[in-house]
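Input/output pair, single chain:
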Amino acid sequence: MTMHSESPIKRRHSRKIWVGKVPVGGDAPIAVQSMTNTETCDVDATVGQIRRLEAAGADIVRVSVPSMEAAEAFGRIKRQVEVPLVADIHFDYQIALRVAELGVDCLRINPGNIGREDRVRAVVEAARARGIPIRIGVNAGSLEKDLQKKYGEPTPQALVESALRHVEHLDRLDFKDFKVSVKASDVFMAVEAYRLLAREIEQPLHLGITEAGGLRSGTVKSAVGLGMLLADGIGDTIRISLAADPVEEIKVGFDILKSLRLRSRGINFIACPSCSRQNFDVVKTMNELETRLDDLLVPLDVAVIGCVVNGPGEAKEAHIGLTGGTPNNLVFIDGKPAQKLTNENLVSELEQLIRRKAAEKAEADAALIVRS
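Output:
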């Protein structure tokens, strides 16, 4: 079963909202997002990073807006990029009002820390007037003091109680277009909180394991936690929180969704870990292919297997499969033996075959869309 097969996961039904041009919830694909880590007032640096995130496939990008000066910079940034932008705002409701005027696509706030009811109402009415959704973001590291006292420590129940308090603010104002996150750095805490919250509200859920760690450890922790939730059908948009280049967050996010057959973007590699049976250097070949083909966005299954034990079986299930053999390696295309390759120039020749297949598939997919 490869990534072009339908996923067996039955997703939780949620209300659909729109973050700019991107639908979130309902029957929409699970959106992948990241957050800039540049200084927002450095407009050129922030725009450059957003464009790199967009090129990597980001559906949505969040930008921190901690001051009115940053709000004005946000407006200049917004005019230079295409991807929908979320403004991350705390405490000062006037910043939220300003970025709403400047064309923000979503407001990330917690109504409880905005202040008085009239200030929350002003933000909600500005969002309602412009069709801007809100994201309520609860984090185990910043729970309200009374909840910390009540529960003694962050717990899934404490996270959900905090979230429902913020939801109540919006319910009182009859505002329904919002999404919610209940993030923790502990996998079990986050997973249980999301499972509890999924039963309480109809709105879409933004998934994440907060402060997950560096590239390797954070990827593993996020894959485990989000994988548990996504397999349950929970989750409408995801952010992988890594102490790394934000572009890596997008790549990891799509890899998680590809593994569950929930999104298909770019190459899905099937590769053996290599052993003494291999007839070519599998690890080196994979490293080179992943680097060279990073720009391909067409969904494609590529199998790279070092010997004939599992090679033919895996290759037949992929769009393109390479099986190690003596004296020559065998390439399968769409499940059928196509040609033999020697180890000399193996990566370059295989790259050409993959790019040719990707172009054919892109053309075929476009024609199918036109016919439908």
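The two ends are 26 Å apart (CA to CA). The first helix runs from residue 43 to 56.
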